[in-house]
Request: fold
Amino acid sequence: FPDSSYQPSFDVLVRYPPLSAVFYVLTLFFFGYKLYFLRLVQVLLFSLAVFYLYRLIKLLTNREAPAWFGALLFAFVPAVFHYAHIAFLDAGQTFFETAAAFYFVKYFKSKNVFYAAPFVLVVVAGVLFKEFVILLIPLSLAYLALMHVFEKKSCSWETITAFFKVHKTFILFSLLAVFAVLPYFITTNVLGAYDIYGKIVDLGLVFGPYSHLMIEGFWVEFPHILTLLFFLGLLYVLLTNRADYRFLGFWFLFFFLFHASHMYGPELDVHRYSLHYTAPVIIIIALVSFRFVDARRWAKGLPWALLVFVTGTTLYAAYNSIDESGPSNEVNSI
Reply:
């Protein structure tokens, strides 16, 4: 991990995608090259991610307690807390992903096309903040198609045409989102610069002879007790009859595979990419924790004890890692 004094160079900041570059240019213009204000962009966006994660859990459970538990746990998971307070874009990307997932679940549960519009707007803005947000489009369409096939128990031509009829507006909005950002992808040659074939090969290596990298990478991001709760929760959401719960597993798998494709090679694992699937991990933990608590009155305080433990250890570790010597002379000279 970068240490607490990490500060990107000006060249790094302005090469970011348009929306994030604008945020940082405005920050530099009004406040100068100050570490605190460079971090503030990500902190504010991450705070919005926590807010939308709270709304998403409440939407799924219609309860306040698991929503508060999940949102606060999300804010203080060690890796998330670390990367939310430095100038990488991944914490901000988490906001766009979580907000888009919230509007997708609203659409999925209600089939109200009204929610397709904010979903698309969030995705388009997210792509202009960091390009990986475009993955929400194939993720959502694939899940809609998969659930439609499971519901109809058929993959016939009639089932396929029925899918397009039921979700035609959402599909249309998704295509419009792709066309809206296509000029950016073409003019910046983002896809050409990204070695897609190489990442697929690396993914095969991570799931093959270098599988230890995947296991070690996951342990690095989450304390062992949270990892255990997550895998129990993953079984719970996959075996439940609720399709909106199963979406969380699909969301996790989609972005975990993306992270796994970066675990082998010169990067030696881009740890911050775990932020892309930490939201569904924490939501799943919140769901299974309160499912357990609801069945056992004596256990009602356990989730909150876990929250206090995670928050306390994270803040203690953060306090001990503070660099009291201040910024380096090189930073002060900029």
